[in-house]
Fold this sequence. Notes:
Strand content: 35-45%
Number of helices: 2
Helix content: 10-25%
Largest sheet: 8 strands, mixed
Radius of gyration: 15 Å
Order of helices and strands: EEEHEEEEEEEH
Amino acid sequence: MYGTLRGGRIDMDDGVTKSSAFRFTVDAVLAGATDTGVPSAGTVTVWYPVSQAQLPKPGRYVLLLDRAERPSTSGVPLFEMAPQPQLVLPLGDDDRLTLRCQDGAEGVVRRERLRAELDGS
């Protein structure tokens, strides 16, 4: 999915672990949202069980999210982000993504082309 990561760390507790979260406003999904339970639009709370220094900076991104095993202790649904840097892709104002290939080279792809590839079009 792609959207806007909002600034600010949120203290979060799911009853087992205390950690951090951030708000992500989903503009739309690229593929697979129905399989993950992530809404196709709106704001979600993304659990990020690492230090604040590792949180992505505010901005537009393509993220891979899944629904967390349990909600926060306040009942807020939580979503988890794959923490690998290649799954947190900055989305430019021109809707272009810069992707790093396995050999270290970089390539640029438009968001709509990525969506078409994921849909198999």
